[in-house]
Specification:
The chain is of the alpha+beta class. Helix content is 49%, strand content 18%. The protein is built from 5 helices and 7 strands. The strands form 2 sheets. The chain has a 5-stranded mixed beta sheet with strand order 2-4-5-7-6. A hairpin with a 5-residue loop joins strand 6 and strand 7. Helix 3 runs parallel beside helix 4 and helix 4 packs antiparallel against helix 5. The chain is globular, with a radius of gyration of 19 Å. 23% of the residues are buried.
């Protein structure tokens, strides 16, 4: 019981620190993003090299902004303050746009999409897109030697299902039930693959809030497939 109590205290202290640090970083990051946007607008299109550097810097700032937003989301989840904007939206269209965006920023992998749902989903479009982005970027990150990542949409009765599959390093069986925990990282890959261990935790919270399920099937050395389901018009 003492070990659990000390662990909870450490997690609470970590949450508080990350929340404060994230808020403090937001202001200078917003300014940096604005200046980069102005720089891109004023650059001469003929100087492709400088324009490319500016674009890469902007992409890095956007990624940093996403990480900070994840840190803020963790603290909001802990205090029950993660906000949702529930409405009907075209699920297939959201998936297509997300795949296109990730593909643009990850040219070394080809994202192959199959299937469709042709359904309007009632939920928070941005939060669910956040889940898809996390799963796709993870699939790309953990399959550095593979050429393809797969995302499949299907519909079963009153649910839609999304599967994101990679042919990467896979996950040891003893870690499968723990990877959705807050701050959990597979120690064997902690140095090789950088991360905060919170993306899947946040994704699980979002899917559960939408009364869906999120799980993974994986075999070490043979890749992983992450699945999530969402009810149709049942939130």
């Amino acid at each position: 019981f003492t070990d659990i109590h000390e662990q909870k205290i450490k997690e609470q202290q970590k949450d508080e620190f990350l929340s404060i640090a994230s808020h403090e970083m937001k202001t200078p990051l917003t300014s940096a993003k604005a200046y980069l946007q102005l720089l891109e607008l004023t650059l001469d299109n003929k100087d492709e090299k400088i324009a490319l550097y500016a674009k890469k810097a902007s992409l890095s700032v956007n990624r940093l902004n996403e990480l900070i937003s994840e840190l803020l989301d963790v603290s909001k989840i802990q205090y029950g303050k993660l906000s949702y904007n529930i409405d009907f939206f075209n699920f297939d269209e959201m998936i297509d746009n997300t795949v296109q965006d990730i593909q643009y920023s990850s040219p070394k992998h080809t994202i192959l999409k199959s299937g469709n749902t042709k359904e309007l989903i009632r939920g928070d479009k941005d939060r669910l897109q956040q889940v898809v982005i996390n799963l796709l970027t993870n699939a790309i990150k953990y399959s550095p030697e593979a050429a393809n990542v797969y995302i499949t949409l299907s519909q079963q009765n009153d649910e839609v299902m999304v599967a994101v599959k990679d042919s990467g390093i896979g996950i040891p069986q003893q870690h499968l039930k723990k990877i959705f925990e807050r701050y959990y990282r597979v120690e064997e890959h902690a140095v090789e693959f950088q991360g905060l261990g919170i993306g899947l935790y946040i994704s699980c919270e979002i899917i559960e809030r939408h009364k869906g399920r999120l799980w993974v099937e994986s075999e070490l050395g043979k890749g992983s497939t992450f699945y999530f389901t969402l009810p149709i018009n049942n939130i």
